[in-house]
């Protein structure tokens, strides 16, 4: 593998790790909502999850600024749709939600779209 290909692979790994990190934002939001429903505005965990949500967005914003320097915007945004796949994974693993055939089909279509954009980069 050439140095430029190796660097490109590292850039894509950074891109997808950043997207995975961002996919935790709705997880923290839902956990804050659950805490709010249990204990109202006085639940200390509500503020903890709110803080994690803001921290997650801050880290992602910094990472995104680095990412868009390394990719064309169309490629970066096409890959950002992988966020939906991570969100479904967290919904199943963390919240024990059911993954339907429609969900899987939709995720497959999104992944196919990302692969099409990747092919032309």
Which short descriptors sum up this protein?
121 residues; mainly alpha; 6 helices; transmembrane; EamA family transporter
In short, what is this structure?
The protein is mostly helical. It has helices spanning 3-22, 25-39, 44-67, 73-80, 83-95, 101-119.
| Radius of gyration, CA atoms, in whole angstroms | 17 Å
Query: How do the SSEs run, as a string of H and E?
Result: HHHHHH
- Estimated helix fraction: over 70%
What is the number of helices? 6
Name the structural class: mainly alpha
Beta-strand segment tally: 0
Keywords: Membrane, Transmembrane, Transmembrane helix
Protein name: EamA family transporter
Transmembrane segments: 12-32, 44-63, 75-93, 99-117
InterPro entries: EmrE-like (IPR037185)
Report on this structure:
The radius of gyration is 17 Å and the shape is flat. It has helices at about 5-20, 25-40, 45-65, 75-80, 85-95, 100-120. The longest helix has 24 residues, at about 45-65. It contains 6 helices and no strands. α1 packs antiparallel against α3 (about 45-65), α2 runs antiparallel to α3 (about 45-65) and α4 (about 75-80) runs antiparallel to α6.
